[in-house]
Amino acid sequence: MGGEALTRLLETLSDAHDSDPTAPTPSDVQILRSLPGVGLKTVAALFAEAADAIATRDLAALRAHAGIAPVTKRSGTRCVVVMRHACSGRLRTALYHAARVSAQCDAGAKQMYAALRARGHSHGRACRSVADRMLRILMAMLRSRTIYLAPPTSQPA
């Protein structure tokens, strides 16, 4: 699906929300689009693959479905935490790229990514952690019906 078609589809979803007088503003589409690093394809992937988790505001389900939540494997004496493979590949890829872009353009994500890399985490694991932060922020925004406002950066005097 091309960019123009996705734009029209997302505008239709947003317009359907705006036509309902009882609906709080802004719409879920507007809230998702306000996150840094989230583009048309990421929003489309979130609505296509995880519409139920977004509608119910279920962070745990969204993390598991996106492959962001790790899996803990335990035996009698060992405990190993590994990456989740049983998840939506499209959603995982979309969130990975959104987290990668967010780590380049958002100050908070950039700082978190740099700290994780400095501690020795791989690029992929650091991006998954940034994506996890994005999902926590997204759920808080959806619950409070607010759009993302970047924290003000301190300017040197």
Quick tags:
mainly alpha, 8 helices, two-stranded antiparallel sheet, 62% helix, globular
Give a concise summary.
The chain is mainly alpha-helical.
What can you tell me about this protein's structure?
The protein is mostly helical. The chain has one domain (27-144). It contains 8 helices and 2 strands; from the N terminus they run H-H-H-H-H-E-E-H-H-H. Strands 1-2 form a two-stranded antiparallel ribbon. A hairpin with a 4-residue loop joins strand 1 (71-74) and strand 2 (79-82). It is globular, with a radius of gyration of 17 Å.
Q: What is the CA-based Rg, rounded?
A: 17 Å
- Determine the mean pLDDT: 86
Major sheet strand order: 1-2
What can be said about the biggest beta sheet?
Answer: 2 strands, antiparallel
Number of strands: 2
In angstroms, what separates the terminal alpha carbons?
Answer: 48 Å
Low-confidence stretches: none
Note the beta-strand portion: 5-15%
Structural class: mainly alpha
Q: Choose one word for the global shape.
A: globular
Helix content: 55-70%
Give the H and E element order. Answer: HHHHHEEHHH
Discrete helix count: 8
Tally of individual domains: 1
